[in-house]
Amino acid sequence: MVAAETFLHRTVPMNYRLIPKELWSIAEKIEARERISDDEAMQLYRTSDLNALGIMASAVRRQKNGNYATYILNRYINYSNICVLSCQFCAFAAKKRDAHAFERAAEDILQAIRDALELGITEVHMVGGLHPTLKKDWYLKLLRELRKLGPTLHIKAFTAIEVRHLAQRVFRMSIRDTLHSLREAGLDSMTGGGAEIFDAAVRDQICHGKESAAEWLDVHRTWHNMGGRSTCTMLYGHIETLPQRVDHLRQLRELQDETGGFTGFVPFAFEPQTTVLAHIKPASAFEQLRNLAVSRVYLDNINHLTAYWVSMGLPLAQVSLSYGVDDLHGTIMEEKIFHMAGATTPQALTVATLENAIREAGLEPVQRDSYYRHVKSGPVAPANGTQPAEAELACA
Q1: Which CATH superfamily is domain 4-367 in?
Q2: Domain residue spans in the chain?
Q3: Is the CB of residue 238 less than 8 Å from the CB of residue 270?
Q4: E strand or H helix at 213
Q5: How, if at all, do strands 68-72 and 327-330 pair?
Q6: What's the rounded Cα separation, in Å, for the pair 26 and 49?
Q7: Which end of the chain is more exposed for a tag (fewer CB within 10 A), N or C?
């Protein structure tokens, strides 16, 4: 395997003739690998020159990752959508009495992963709702059985919100002890879901009752201090303001300064169509590319930026490779969370499709592992792109 961090010392000059003069000082900071301020992030968010943002964000991408763009062979599992919360932005969660509620049997989950392993996956990514009745032994036994399926299978599971739920309501243990139990059973890394927007006023309106930003950050801090790694996310394009986005990015950057435990950043555009916030206009392509580019420049200490093609669609995700993105996520099979909210993107992509999209954008495609390290050789998906009959995805 080759770590993308080997490209961190490359010099990447920019064509200043294509950048407005008012952004030159920021471009100079990028070339010097200096950190931009919150005010400068706001300046980037407020510019209408999308091409200039792409130039600057691409310079950061090349500094950190050369001319490579990655993807992972993974299998997503939603073990249940039954949840004690009722977040306004969510069309996925259900109460037990709801018609769309589901709870997968452990053996069903294990068989799905057995099938996916035959296709060459290297990672299982598993999240669910905050289930009110599943017991401690159910979670730990499932992790142990997943671990038995393959010593090289990376188990990436649970959001910080799920971990707090498990610690407080299920395991009745501290966050650290809960994470230790999960790791002993087989957990390799945590997912980044549940971050939404950190601002307390926003959270009160779109996910009232969900843990605070400080609590989300504390779970990841604890996991990182135990030697664990995780991704981080942002759900944008709803009621948040641009300063609130910058505040969200700042808090992620500060925790990364402290722990260095985030492997990548995965922003999601809000899908309002079937939620109680359906009156909100979905984020435009311009806004999605701008948010990715600003995030790439601002998060100078997080090496990887993922375009979530399930939300964006592959054509826009391909364009985003010119706006700082260096990862197109995975060979996703069937997605529920975003499609239940109204997304109309495909629910599966083959390796060939992802690699062609990357090459057409002028980058070199590389399979990665769960830590964004390049995989030189190893299992690959079948040439015909066949997938298991059932597969599911949650957030990164």
Answers
A1: Aldolase class I (3.20.20.70)
A2: 4-367
A3: yes
A4: helix 213-225
A5: parallel
A6: 14
A7: N
